From TrEMBL:
It comes from Aromatoleum diolicum. The gene is dapB. It is found in: Cytoplasm. Its main location: cytoplasm. The lineage of its organism: Bacteria, Pseudomonadati, Pseudomonadota, Betaproteobacteria, Rhodocyclales. This is 4-hydroxy-tetrahydrodipicolinate reductase. NAD(+) binds at residues 10-15, 36, 99-101, 123-126.
Length: 268
């Protein structure tokens, strides 16, 4: 069996380092390239040094050369970087796993368009546990479809730049879809002042940022006389990285198309 060659974007980032570790541990994949932005202090250094295990792959600031050396690029960076890397992957006919969050609707369109040519997994959370929670939320929303107010609460580390998290938004989408609502029109992002009584049709979002919280998400279904909370807490970034490498292997069997972790995990 040939090993899947992976290129890692944003190699020195929090997720980049995890992805280096996950791909070096996985016998089914080869770390073919690692790249980062020009000017970062790690350019030219061995990618494995970032996790204390030199591996002979130097970090480059040339995304085209890095992606050309691989079958699949895994990208957890920022939307503007991801879209540049996506263009290169499309031109070179490589598959892509996108974990980056915070895209605008227009930016997401660019991903949907590229996926007509190359295979793409695009998912706001690659952890198996979170994807199990998405399924639990479908069931909860089907049962609690009347008389329960829905609120999504998330907490992340102080360095996170987008809010609410991509995962919180997806949780809102899952519940809204089950309840026959459109998240674009029913979402409330924070409250202040004299807000009036709660509108039963809305889905509220609350965001906490602080310290080194890896990522906590709760969906609260609040009725009169009882509350149901469905919570996921991340203790490490490794489940995201393992999910992303698994997604890369899944794409090896596809010529093009847009997928998410529900496809990778067979949860559709
Ligand atoms: N789908 C999932 O399962 C998960 C998704 N995420 C998402 O992944 C993304 C990255 O998170 P995290 O690793 O914590 O972030 P970090 O800031 O730690 O790492 C981001 C990396 O991308 C680089 N980068 C930033 N901007 C650009 C750009 N314009 N072009 C190319 N490279 C760039 C950074 O370089 P520099 O240091 O020079 O800025 C850094 O190396 C976020 O959107 C986050 O929400 C995170 C965890 C799980
Ligand atoms: O930035 C992070 O850290 C995370 N981002 C993702 C998101 O926005 O949902 C996934 C996870 O929660 C960690």
């Amino acid at each position: 069996m040939t090993s899947l060659r992976i290129a890692i974007a944003g190699a020195s980032g929090r997720m980049g380092r995890m992805l280096i570790e996950a791909s070096l541990q996985d016998e089914g994949v080869t770390l073919a390239a690692a790249f980062d932005r020009p000017g970062t202090p790690f350019i030219g250094r061995d990618a494995g040094e970032l996790i204390g295990v030199p591996c002979g792959v130097a970090i480059t600031d040339d995304p085209r050369a890095a992606i050309a050396a691989a079958d699949c690029v895994i990208d957890f960076t920022r939307p503007e970087g991801t879209l540049v890397h996506l263009d290169i992957a499309r031109e070179l006919g490589k598959s892509m796993v996108i974990g980056t969050t915070g895209f605008t609707a227009g930016e997401k369109e660019a991903i949907f368009t590229a996926a007509r040519t190359i295979p793409v997994v695009f998912a706001p959370n690659m952890a198996v546990g979170v994807n199990a929670v998405f399924k639990l939320l479908e069931m909860a929303a089907r049962i609690l479809n009347e008389g329960y107010d829905v609120e999504v609460i998330e907490a992340h580390h102080r360095f996170k730049v987008d809010a609410p998290s991509g995962t919180a938004l997806r949780m809102g989408e899952v519940v809204a879809r089950e309840l026959g609502r459109n998240l674009e029109t029913c979402a409330i992002y924070g409250r202040e002042g004299v807000t009036g009584e709660r509108n039963a049709e809305t889905i509220g979002f609350s965001t906490i940022r602080g310290g080194d919280v890896v990522g906590d998400h709760t969906v609260l279904f609040a009725g009169i006389g009882e509350r149901i909370e469905i919570t996921h807490k991340s203790g490490s970034r490794m489940p995201y990285a393992l999910g992303a490498v698994r997604a890369g292997r899944f794409l090896a069997g596809h010529a093009n198309g847009l997928f998410d972790m529900q496809d990778v995990l067979g949860l559709r």
